[in-house]
Amino acid sequence: MTDSGPTLITGRFIRTDRDCIGTGAGADSGREDPGASPEAMLVEGGVIVAVGSRREISAPPGVRRIDVGEGWAIPGLIEPHGHPAEAAVLLGDGVVDIRPVVLDSANGVWAAIRAALTAEPRPARVLANGWDPLLQRGLTVPTMLDLDEVAGDIPLVIVHNSLHSAYFNSAAAREAGLGRDTPDPDGASFGRDATDELTGVAYEAGAVMRVAGPVLEAARADLPRRLATHLSGVRARGITTIADLTWTDELGRVYTGLADTGELPVRVRGYEMSRPGAHASAPRDNGDSMVRQVGVKVWSDGSPWVGNIATSFPYLDTPATRALGLEPGHIGRPNYSTDQLIDIGAQYVGEGWQLACHAHGDVAIDSTLDAYAELVRRFDLADHRFRIEHCGLMTPAQFSRAAELGVTVSLFVDHITYWGDVLIDDLFGERGSAWTDAGAAFAAGHRATFHNDGTVTPYEPLRNMAVAETRTSRTGRRLAGGVHARRLDTLRAHTSHAAWQLRSEHEIGALAPGMRADIAVLDVDPRVADPAALAEARVLTTALNGEFQ
Predict the structure, then answer these.
(1) 3-class SS at 109?
(2) Among residues 129, 122, 142, 125, which one has the least CA distance to residue 96?
(3) For 31, which DSSP code?
């Protein structure tokens, strides 16, 4: 950061860290009554010194002056569960983008894959990302033989939009060194037939990365450029801090290198991927305000979209679940038992690390809470801030139990936007109408957060806020089984709550003295805007350490 001396920033500032629920027209929805907003902010060395009216803030001689215009300035938004390094590769050069936000039909998906395979010059290998039969109707689970017929001797890997499974042909298996005797990675597996031969499907991160690794290897040398470009796009969405939940020691060095050269446009907080028998690769005290590892990622179950979340009840038997390859009465299974989660967690908790555990199904959430309870007891923990990620089928009782244990939650509420109808009609019936119940989380006393999970949905924190309030899918259907969240809670989910969850509340998440001057300027007042207007609001500009771009 270049210190350009004291800066006086003027405009309309919103203090989401303050309890200022309105008593006027917006009060019933928890929308803040705007009243008088601060008009000026003094920044020195990238840190906010004072916030108040223009009359209250005295500017020193020679101060630099910046006016943010007619927009509304809020704390820079925080994405508490992302995968920016994965996204920089999977949404970058050399990968066929078949996500449902780009292609909405099976024909479009296959046309894009075939075009890549027949391109000139002949490709050494093809990786496609974003397969989703639930939104791209007509797709069915491909076998290894199917993909051999499509790609021949060109290695082909197709990654599911959830990133929790991938499909591959024989050439890709050979290139990755996979065969009949290949053991399943910890917490992951390869599909096999009755004779243990591979069927061409990989389940969960360890297996997906094993088969996709050779294709992704070429991108590693170019990762700094890809990351800088991708994160510039992230910042354009108003996000000034993002958590990477596929953190590695090597990746941490890439982020640090970008920060050292002034090419890192956002702050990054890392969660290292856990492994049985492993320990964190960094000391607990590491990094700085720009780049820092803060925790460790664990997986209790998988993705609802591929049938591997651990529930106490079966998936529906529908044409959609049949297209996923699920037999009638299918019930997903956990990645690890409760005892295994405890063993994995103990490796890191003893060193003082926060845990963030992926869990969707009610059985997986119970198992995660049981494991957390034992770790809290065993290590006599207080302010641990253990996290549960996504929380798809988490019940009000489970939210309450989590709060009592000091466990915090991050909800993938944008699932409602894209898969709201699918959750009810195709997968879970009325149980799906309570998916990602943000209102129940807040009612239980949580400082809950929202996220978009890397490539799965676009970075759209403002839409997250709106959908948590309305619980409405993009077809206009309301998921009535959950509780509508209040506006101030939803604003905090991507600001002060997210900062606290990332153990960064001392430096980001609020426009207050002593905090970093990270700002997003919107074209609407997010306290009172209609949910539809908030979802579509534009980010006019952003600042990191008081420096606008």
Answers:
(1) helix
(2) 129
(3) -
